[in-house]
Design goal:
The chain is an alpha/beta fold and 366 residues long. Helices cover 49% and strands 21% of the residues. Strands 8-7-6-9-11-10 form a six-stranded mixed sheet, with helices on both faces. Strands 3-2-1-4-5 form a five-stranded mixed sheet. Helix 1 packs across helix 17 and helix 7 packs across helix 17 (340-365).
Length: 366
């Protein structure tokens, strides 16, 4: 996967829609009508529902609208094997908002994906049919391989150009995807050399271990349990030496790592422009992780970059990150506030360009 593929979705950066949206919309309006968006990417995860809508802007894409809401679709799933009525109702409410935004913006090329919760749930397919009937949105349950590919595609342009290798991780609500990236010298890019999906995320770990209050002993037990599963993957891409020699780094795309970055920076309000692309030294990240672990649930609720929606989940996410960097040693962590949706947008942009390339080739051969 080249940096150009990833940048196709981001244009080198994605401006925070909460601060940019109104200005961008005004600049794109003609005759008082909202701009026509060409691409829409909707990711329904175990914990979160996220939407990005973009329009072409030269060779790049410009984000014109977005939406994100924690819905906890996978709440209670690990115990019951079913999506609960309350979780499905929360999710439908959020998707109604998404459908309204897509219709308003005219997202002609759209992909809606769902991941671990619907993969696992006995009533996952039935729920997707309900979504189609109530919102008009047509979701596909993607494989773990496709989930890892999209997450990597969405943030690969943040890999340090000087690195020989990188490990991209995406800590979700019900699973964690890991992609090992190897530098391709002749192409000046990084290709995915191996990937895996592990069946734990912040929601199912919090339900198993508890997430509101975790003493150090219990936290370390979680880390050890997760690390053993990561270690069982071995060294599938043959890149461990690069990590041991300090020639590689990890890159995280998830609410966990962006929350850690926001707390580490001391932000009074979460700011994507400060967090996306931020480098964290491992020692710095670990100090923040311990700060969050030692906090009470109420203290984490009051933390501006955590809040009530993540206060019982973030420490389990921290445990996953800690296990990962113990098994794959690094001195630096790069933070990505981008991932699956941006990977989808990159695919949609590439697909839209293919007919144009074919027409140009036909003209050339006439």
């Amino acid at each position: 996967m080249s940096k150009e593929q990833s940048a196709a979705a981001t244009g080198g950066q994605i401006n925070d829609p909460t601060t940019q949206q109104s200005g961008q919309a005004r600049r794109g309006r003609r005759g008082g009508k909202p701009p026509r968006a060409r691409f829409a990417a909707l990711d329904l995860g175990t914990n979160n529902c996220r939407l990005l809508i973009a329009t072409p802007d030269g060779k790049d894409l410009r984000i014109v609208d977005s939406f994100s809401r924690i819905v906890r679709l996978g709440e209670g799933l690990s115990a019951s094997g079913l999506l609960s009525d309350a979780a499905m109702a929360r999710t439908i409410d959020a998707l109604q908002v998404c459908a309204g935004k897509i219709n308003q913006r005219g997202g002609a090329h759209m992909r809606c994906i769902t991941t671990q919760a619907c993969r696992m749930a006995e009533n996952g397919e039935a729920f997707l049919e309900r979504i189609r009937n109530e919102t008009g949105l047509n979701f596909e349950i993607i494989s773990t391989e496709e989930e890892a590919r999209l997450a990597a595609a969405g943030c690969a342009d943040l890999i340090d150009e000087r690195a020989e290798a990188a490990l991209i991780f995406d800590i979700g609500g019900g699973s964690t995807e890991i992609s090992w990236m190897r530098r391709v010298e002749e192409a000046n890019s990084f290709d995915c050399a191996a990937w895996t999906s592990l069946p734990f995320g912040v929601v199912n770990l919090a339900e198993k271990w508890g997430g509101c209050e975790l003493d150090l002993e219990r936290y370390e037990a979680i880390v050890d349990s997760i690390r053993s599963e990561i270690a069982a993957c071995g060294d599938p891409a043959g890149l461990k030496a690069q990590f041991n020699d300090g020639k590689a780094h990890v890159l995280g795309t998830s609410g966990t790592v962006t929350s850690i970055a926001g707390v580490s920076l001391g932000l009074k309000k979460y700011r994507r422009d400060r967090v996306d692309g931020q480098w964290l030294e491992v020692d710095q990240a670990r100090r923040t992780i311990e700060k969050l672990r030692a906090m009470s649930f109420d203290e984490r609720v009051r933390e501006p970059c955590i809040g009530a929606d993540r206060a019982d989940l973030v420490v389990c996410g921290c445990a996953i990150l800690e296990a990962l960097i113990r098994e794959w040693p690094t001195t630096r962590i790069r933070v990505a506030d981008r991932g699956l949706r941006e990977g989808i947008l990159a695919d949609l942009a590439s697909q839209a360009q293919q007919p144009k390339r074919r027409r140009r080739r036909r003209k050339k051969h006439k």
